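To illustrate the input format used throughout this study, we show a single complete record. The first block contains the structure-token representation of the backbone; no residue identities are included at this stage. The design step must infer an amino acid for every position from geometry alone.
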């Protein structure tokens, strides 16, 4: 069975527990409040054959780029997010993309999955979980 192609532009339509997730990352109160107001757009380029992916998260405040190959560990600079670096691996878990970020925060990572034209993102750190839902641009 072939894996889904995540390529596309997706606009956020909802989020849940972002403040709790950012608090678990030790993000200061003022920055948490700003981030919770943002409505990010994700631009994803996915070469299914090679496993190469680029995920651009665009906001009016800051942009964040992840450029990686599925299954290959890389050093991720999370400076725009929380000032940390970690060793990151993104790979398939069935039809979902599972990211494990090894660094000073335990249990950190995320999962992306598609349901039709809806992109789901679940972000984890320790016991904190935040969820975002995006709709694909037509």
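Output of the design step:
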């Amino acid at each position: 069975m072939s894996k889904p192609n995540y390529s596309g532009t997706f606009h956020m339509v909802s989020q849940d527990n972002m403040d709790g997730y950012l608090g678990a990352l030790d993000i200061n109160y003022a920055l948490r409040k700003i981030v919770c107001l943002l409505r990010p757009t994700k631009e994803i380029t996915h070469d299914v054959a090679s496993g190469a992916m680029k995920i651009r998260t665009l906001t009016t405040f800051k942009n964040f780029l992840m450029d990686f190959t599925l299954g290959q560990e890389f050093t991720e600079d999370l400076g725009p997010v929380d000032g940390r670096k970690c060793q990151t691996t993104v790979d398939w878990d069935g039809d979902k993309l599972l990211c494990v970020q090894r660094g000073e925060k335990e249990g950190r990572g995320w999962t992306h999955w598609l349901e039709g034209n809806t992109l789901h993102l679940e972000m984890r750190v320790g016991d904190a979980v935040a969820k975002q839902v995006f709709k694909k641009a037509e």
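Structural context for interpreting the output: The two ends are 26 Å apart (CA to CA). Residues 37 and 134 are 15 Å apart (CA to CA).
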